[in-house]
Amino acid sequence: MNNNEKFRVYDYDIPEQAEEAWDKLANWYSARKKGSYEFKIQLPAILNLLGNLHGKSLIDIGCGPGNYSVEFAKRGANVLGIDLSQKMLDKARNNAKMADVKLTLQKADAHLIRYPDNSFDIAVIILAILNEKIIKEAARVLKPGGLLLISDTHPTLEAKGHWKSNKIGTPRIIEDYFSREKKKWQINYDTEHTITLEYYTQTIEQSVNMIADAGFKILRIVEPKPRKDLKKNDPRHYDKCSRIPYFIIYLTQKHM
Ligand SMILES: C[S@@+](CC[C@H](N)C(=O)[O-])C[C@H]1O[C@@H](n2cnc3c(N)ncnc32)[C@H](O)[C@@H]1O
């Protein structure tokens, strides 16, 4: 029997739902992340935008299994990873151990970061919760002139629509970019269990205005494309991600 549970994961009034959902998904997400097309596409672009990390204090908000935190620590950053899900933090601890790097990990809700104002040089939010309250909280804990990097699923990929077929070279049809309908992501995380995550996404206009309203200047926007090596390992995603942007990365700076 397949057990299907629904969770609203992007509303800040009910973080308990996100915590329960991500605890259940931690094994599945962590196994999928390693070597995934999304990691291979985002990581080089993120590192390139952040530049020299040596000696920088960095907070990874919604760090999940810590794959990015580990990469930042390998490059000399002092990394704090926060996440609502203890199971995700356990994965991050294990990943840090395997890579032989030190991470500070804290179970916390990103809406209430338990650090004083002006604590960090850099904050990152990668495929995690994005709303006004969290961006303002990131602004509070960043030093003046500090960097906030946000990597999100691209709004054209999230827009209401569908792929015309499953074949390589097939177009994605966008039916309604501005639709405010709830999105659903159905995940069969093991043979017996399915979780449906329900969430809302932002248009580019909404994200940019939210970032500006929280006191950040946008320095760069990058829509990363896959490198050639993905073509061999994952030709389907290489094809799709070369033609349609899957991610959008905002590099922003807190005002001095
Ligand atoms: C899609 S995963 C992304 C993880 C990681 N950043 C990555 O890209 O691999 C989203 C993560 O955000 C965390 N999360 C969701 N809501 C949160 C909140 N309110 N506070 C802290 N973490 C949260 C989840 O537990 C989950 O680990």
Describe the secondary structure blueprint for this structure.
Elements: E1 3-8, H1 15-33, H2 37-50, E2 57-61, H3 67-74, E3 78-83, H4 86-99, E4 104-107, E5 120-126, H5 132-141, E6 142-153, H6 155-158, E7 160-163, E8 172-176, E9 183-188, E10 193-199, H7 204-213, E11 216-222, H8 229-233, H9 235-243, E12 247-254
Parallel strand pairs: 1-10, 2-3, 2-5, 3-4, 5-6
Antiparallel strand pairs: 6-12, 7-8, 9-10, 11-12
Helix pairs in contact: 1-4, 3-4
The protein binds S-adenosylmethionine.
Task: Explain what you see.
Helices cover 36% and strands 30% of the residues. With 256 residues, it is of the alpha/beta class. It has a single domain, classed as Rossmann fold. The strands form three sheets. The protein has a seven-stranded mixed β-sheet with strand order 4-3-2-5-6-12-11, with helices on both faces. α1 (15-33) packs parallel to α4 (86-99) and α3 runs parallel beside α4 (86-99). The protein is globular and about 50 Å long. The model has no long low-confidence stretch (mean pLDDT 94). The structure holds S-adenosylmethionine. The site of S-adenosylmethionine has 21 residues, from α1, α3 and β3.
Low-confidence segments, given as residue ranges, are none
CATH topology: Rossmann fold
Q: What is the count of distinct domains?
A: 1
The CATH fourth-level homologous superfamily: Vaccinia Virus protein VP39
Q: Specify the biggest β-sheet.
A: 7 strands, mixed
Judged by helices, strands and strand pairing, the structural class is: alpha/beta
